[in-house]
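Worked example 3. Consider a protein that binds acetamide.
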Amino acid sequence: MKPYLSLSYFFVICFGLTCLTSCQTKRPAIPKDLAKQQVIPKLVSVIPTGSSYEINNNTSIQYQSEKLQPVADYLAKMLRPVTGFELPVKMKDSKPSSNYIYLTLTDSISTDEGYKLETKESGVEIKASKPVGVFYGVQTLRQLLPASIETGAKITDTLLVATGVIKDNPTYGYRGAMLDVSRHFFGVEDVKRYIDLLSIYKMNRLHLHLTDDQGWRIEIKSWPKLTEIGGSTSIDSTKGGFYTQEQYKDIVKYAQKRFITIVPEIDLPGHTNAALASYPELNCDGVAPKLYHGTKVGFSSLCIDKEITYKFIDDVIGELAAITPGEYIHIGGDESHATSPEDYVYFIDKAQEIVNKHGKKVIGWDEVAHAKLLPNTIVQFWSRKGENAVEGVEKGAKILMSPAPKLYFDMKYDSITRVGQNWAGYIKVEDAYSWDLETYQEGIAKENILGIEAPLWTEYVQTMDDIEHLVFPRIMGVAEMGWTPASQRNWDEYKVRLGNHKDRLDALDIDYYASTFVPWRSKTNQETSNTKE
Ligand code: ACM
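Given these inputs, the predicted complex is written out as structure tokens:
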């Protein structure tokens, strides 16, 4: 053998040996198995297969039906700025052979919101019967990726997805939050941020409490003084605000893209001082009261006997229904202590008819159960005693579960929480999570329940930080209660998964309440998802 040949063999062998060791260690390590990931709401079924797929600069996002293009674009927009990858979005009839995120519609999944997410070494496939299911699959994929993707800033982390098959679908079709924009007003950007955060946890309704004694927050073109006068202040007497119809439509559209339906509320016949202050003719004595900046409830009422009251409601609901694609309009109905019981029932009966005439179904706070309920009216259980909601069940209504001692997130976590109140008690993160919708109230069974909603009243809530501090992390537990069967949930397991969200909540810049009962773990003190078992 010539000396130079033997030298080259030597180099080839050395390179081979080096590669066997160092090339192997450079391969993506296998992430911890899927079941140990930090997904909230808890995935219904997970079969890990022990390997990984890496999203990289050659990954493409492909979709099989035109209907999925917005979801594909949403995913690309989320990942492009943080990764710097091109991530081309293309339509394709069949699954690509390698390095894909493939979104597809199929008849083989029977639920509207369910999905299947299958990750192989070649890529990720998300299948559902409807675009909403694919969107939820995308939210799961998002939570399987490093928390750093949430910062919006360029990252250097490797984007590994553990291989396996996830099958997931929600228990309840209504998984919501309510935001009171009347007592304090929150602008379009704050509402959009809340929508973005809710969508990560697969929530699908945002109920906006648009009117109350302290402020009227939606433009009604046929009654312009409602916003001119009634929208000019709030509990903070110097600050008002309202959404123009264009702004409201923008919120609705933004929410729709995240598969969240806006449920608007016009609180009637009480909680109406802002309207009564705007139009003297809505008052029985024809005299407009002053604008109200306090925190009392139960002192105002529309004039039940006047015809103009029903013209007013017809106009307001008509304009609102025309810009609300969702099926529900909420008519309030709570704490109408200034309306006699007979007048109340008469009024709620008429209000339901008006809402139905405009093609929408009614949701009302649980006092509406005293009226003759129309077959499609939903009763929202909030009061500390459940008898109103049970009356609703007896009259055939479905119940939206929001019992104050569990889900009123304006309640503080404990005595030293920096914002909030405590008339329904303190609600620790565990208290909000560790109960079952199906057993909470005798007389309300699973088949009577439409879903779950966590209200946030804003008498003492003034800023987006206040909202986030009261709502996070309790709202994540609500998302899970609406999604994951009660039999698969328990606090001891949940609190670990919640604790693993620390980096994600930080990356999202959420001002969450870091309960000492939750084992918060950041990547620096936990095994990272890139660590081999
Ligand atoms: C309510 O808390 N008044 C519904």
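Take a moment to read the result before moving on. The chain has 16 helices and 17 strands. The two ends are 47 Å apart (CA to CA).
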